[in-house]
Amino acid sequence: MRGVLVTKNDKDISATLQDIDEQQLPEGNVTVRVHWSSFNYKDVLAITGKMPVIRSYPMVPGIDLAGVVESSDDDRYQVGQEVLVTGYGIGEAHWGGYAELARVPGDWLVPLPEGLTMRQSMAIGTAGFTAMLCVMALERGGVTPDQGPILVTGAGGGVGSVAIGLLSKLGYEVAAVSGRPEAADYLKELGASEVLPRSEFSEAGKPLGKERWAAAVDVVGSHTLANICASTKYDGIVTACGLAGGMEFPATVAPFILRGVTLVGIDSVQCKQPRRSEAWQRLVEDLDLAKLETMTNEIQLDDVIETAKNWGQSDHRGRVVVAVQS
C-alpha cells in the first residue's frame, strides 16, 4: 500500500511517501480501504516534527479517515460498508489516514451518516466535528439566538469556518475574529455579521470588560480566551477547544464569580460514542453542504508532505481534504 511514513533516527524526523508492507498495519479488528483523509495543523506538526505530537515511530499520520471496510472481525461492520474515524489518537499513537489501508478497533468507527459522501465527511473532519461539539455545548448551556452575538476566534481555520456556518444556519448572529483582513469577505459569505481583528483580543486585558458576547467558540487560548471570558455577558458560555495562541490561561476568576460565566472544555479525541454519533447526525442536519464546499480545498496523497512543509508560507483557510486513492 502507498502511504506517508514518518520515521525517527536519533533526533532526526523524516517523512516519505513510500510503499508500505500491509503486514506492518497495527492491531485492530477492522481493516478500511481509505479513500479520503483531511489535512490539519496537527498533521503539519507530525510530518515536520515541529512539535512532538507523534507518540511512537514509525507512524502514518492523518488524524481523520473515511473509507470502505475491506475486512472485519466486528459484527457491527460489514465488508463494503462506508465508515469514518476521527480522534482516538490515529495519526499520533495509531497509524492514521495517510495510507491506502488502515486497521483500527471497531469501537472507533462511525458508520458514514446518510446524507454525506466520504469526501464531505472529511471536509468536515475533526475540525468540523469539534465545531459541532462546541455548538452543542452552547445549546446545552441554554444559549439562544435572541441573547446576542456569538464570538468565534480563529475564524478562517477549519473549526472557525464550520462553527460560523453552523451557528449562522441555526439563526445566531456571529462575530468572527481573524488576523487576516483579506478573509473578511470569505467569513461574511459563511455567515459572519462582522469581522474583528485578532489584535483586539491577543494582548493582556482587564479582569472584566464590557459585556459583549452571549457565548463564544475559542480555538486560541492564552490572552484571547482570557479577554473573551472577561467580555462575555452574564450567564454566558465560552467553549475552549484549541491552543493556537498558547496553553496558558492568564485570567482571573472575576468573570466566573461576578457574571456566572461558564467555561466549557471541548475534547474531540476521546469523545464518547453517543455524543459522537449525535454530533455527526447534527452535522448532516445543520451544516449547509454548499457552504462546506466553498470552504474546502483538495490535495492528493502525493502533495501531503510538501503541503505540510509549506503550511506557514501560504494562506490556508477552511478545510483541506486529501484524496488517498490514486
From TrEMBL:
GO terms for molecular function: acryloyl-CoA reductase (NADPH) activity. Coiled coil: none annotated. It holds the Pfam family ADH_zinc_N. It comes from the Bacteria. Residues 12-322 form the Enoyl reductase (ER) domain. This is Zinc-containing alcohol dehydrogenase superfamily protein. It comes from Rhodopirellula europaea 6C.
